[in-house]
Each structure stands twice: as C-alpha cells, then as structure tokens.
Specification:
Blueprint: H1 20-39, H2 42-67, H3 75-92, H4 97-119, H5 124-144, H6 146-149, H7 173-194, H8 198-215, H9 220-246, H10 256-269, H11 274-289, H12 301-315, H13 327-334
C-alpha cells in the first residue's frame, strides 16, 4: 500500500501475474512429479504422496503466516477435523473421493470459522497461543470422543478411495499418488490465482500495516476471518487426502507435532512463498522420516530437524525461496 493512498478498498488492484521465468520451472516440476511412479518404487511413491499432502497443509499455514502475517500452530486441528470427517464419510456414507474432499473441507471451514471468530481478534504471540490452544482442544476431543473417533486406537478399515463414480477403487500406491497429485495441482493452481487478486493484496496490506488498512476503510477482522476459514478448509482437504493415502487416522494426526512441522516447513521454505512452503515441506518430511531413520542417526530425527532450522535461520534468512542464482550464471546461460 503506497503512502499516498487515501481512497477506500476500491483502490486496491490485482497483483501481477506469475512471470514466464517461473512458469517453466513449475512445468518441469509438474512433469517430474507425473513421471515419478514410473521411475520409483512403491515405498518412494507412497512417501511422495505423503509429502504432497503435507505440502498442502504447509500451504494452508502459509496463507495465514506468510500472506496475512498470522503465525499459527493450530492448522493440525483442521487437518484432523478433515481427516476424521473423510474417514466417517468413507466408512458410513460413500467412498467417492471428491465428495469426501468437499465434506471434509466444508466441515473444517465451519470449525475454523467458529474458532477463528475468537482467534482473529488477537495478533502476534497471543494469536499464536490461541491457535495452539485450539489445536490442543481438537486433539483432546479426538482422544476422548471415543464413540466417534475410536479414541487413541484411531479409525482403521477405511475403504480405498474411488476417484469418480463408476471408476474402480484405487488400490495401488501409484494410482493413489496420481489422485493426490491431481488434487494438489488443482489447489496449487487455485492458490496461485488467489495470489493475483485484490483480496490477496488486501491481506498483504494487513500483514504489513494493519492500522493503515483499517484507517482507509478495510474491515481487517473480516478479511482475517475469511482467510482463516479458507486456510482451515484447505487443511481439511489435506486431511481427507491423508486418509486416502493412509486409510487410517488417529489423534496424533491432529496433534502439536504436525502443526509445528507445518510451521517449520513454511519458515524454512520462505514465509509468503507458495513453492517455498512446498519445498520446505518436502525437506522437513524427508529429514524426519528418511534421514532420521538412517542407521548412522537412528532415533535422532528431531535433532536433525532442530539443526536444519538453525542452519536455515542463519544461512537462509529468507528461506529456500530467497535463494537466487548468481548473475554470472544467468549471463552465461543468456550468452
């Protein structure tokens, strides 16, 4: 928002479109992800599916932390709500995947709107603590509401997802991966379009100077509640995809560890960057579940994550998204 702006909300225009220099790498990554099942084994493909789901959760955190300036530790709550909702829909109503996604996203959005009404009235550390409390409440509900969640035993026996009516259920890891990848790419494209709207520009204004945004007529709490609910819906969809991959859900999926890892992924990847959040999610997940299980460092996954965070803070203050190719290399390529 420029210092000379004095008009109301109508003065905010759309952001610029994604430059062509970034579209080509994005297309290359999309093609590589599409070819992955043909080049990797079942375990690696399953890991990629989990990384894509976790990346969606990180993107929901990025909507709040990076775009709006609201650091959160509560997105695992809506991730868990979406996962349990999808599990209930799959076992009791229908195994059609898109319906599970819609219901899970809708329920998570409603829960986020109800809890966010209180949370968005605060800022800074108070907001962070409120979201942490929301996450703990949902986790406790998942543990104690045994008639619905089956308590600490979790919900198992979830049928394989059916992508469309009349299509066979997805039993193989590679087919489930393609389903997850399709949903991920659709949502990533939608979020990219959102970033080029006046709504996103208003959110950036709230992040950078909320008092000024209020002074020129923006209802900042309404904007904050809207993006909070949208981020909750996105986390809920990620939870539904998690059920499609795991075919199991437990209270741990709504716990503090998942929320902390998602926020860590955004910080390492670069707050405010969509691709940075995804890259950070992949790095965090691989560090915890792959490097942490190597024989040389077995059982020291949390230590590796702590070291990764310290290195990222000091070596990459703007995260992975802040890494720039040296000018000499770009000149050589141009030549």
């Amino acid at each position: 928002m420029s210092p000379s702006a004095t008009a109301g909300p109508a003065t905010v225009g759309p952001a610029t479109a994604l430059p062509a220099t970034r579209r080509l790498p994005a297309a290359v990554v999309a093609v590589a992800l599409a070819l992955a099942p043909f080049l990797l084994g079942p375990y690696a493909v399953g890991t990629l599916s989990r990384i894509l789901v976790f990346a969606l959760l990180a993107l929901s955190v990025n909507l709040l932390t990076g775009l709006t300036g609201l650091p959160t530790l509560g997105q695992s709550a809506y991730f868990g709500v979406g996962a349990y909702t999808a599990a209930i829909v799959a076992t009791r109503i229908t195994d059609i995947g898109p319906l599970q996604l819609l219901v899970a996203g809708g329920v998570s959005a409603l829960v986020a709107a109800g809890t966010g009404w209180l949370a968005v009235r605060a800022r800074g550390v108070v907001f962070l603590m409120l979201t942490l409390a929301i996450g703990e409440i949902v986790y406790s509900a998942a543990v104690n509401w045994k008639s619905v969640t089956n308590g600490t035993d979790g919900m198992s026996g979830i049928p394989p997802v059916v992508p469309l009516p009349g299509v066979p259920a997805l039993e193989l890891d590679g087919l489930v991966y393609f389903y997850v990848l399709a949903v991920f790419l659709l949502l990533f494209a939608a979020l990219s379009r959102l970033g080029a709207t006046s709504f996103a520009l208003a959110l950036r204004g709230i992040r950078d100077n909320e008092p000024r945004m209020r002074a020129i007529g923006y209802p900042t709490q309404r904007y904050a509640l809207a993006v909070y609910s949208g981020a909750g819906a996105l986390a809920g969809v990620a939870g539904a995809l998690w059920v499609s991959v795991q075919r199991f859900v437990s209270p741990g999926d709504a716990g503090f560890e998942i929320a902390a890892l998602a926020l860590l992924a955004v910080v390492i990847g670069g707050s405010g960057s969509m691709w940075g959040a995804c890259a950070g999610a992949a790095l965090v997940w691989l560090t915890r579940d792959y490097l942490g299980n190597l024989e040389a460092v077995a059982g020291r996954g949390p230590l590796l994550l702590g070291l990764l965070f310290v290195i990222a803070v000091y070596a990459l203050p703007r995260g992975l998204a802040g890494v720039r190719i040296p000018h000499r290399l770009t000149r050589k390529r141009a030549a």
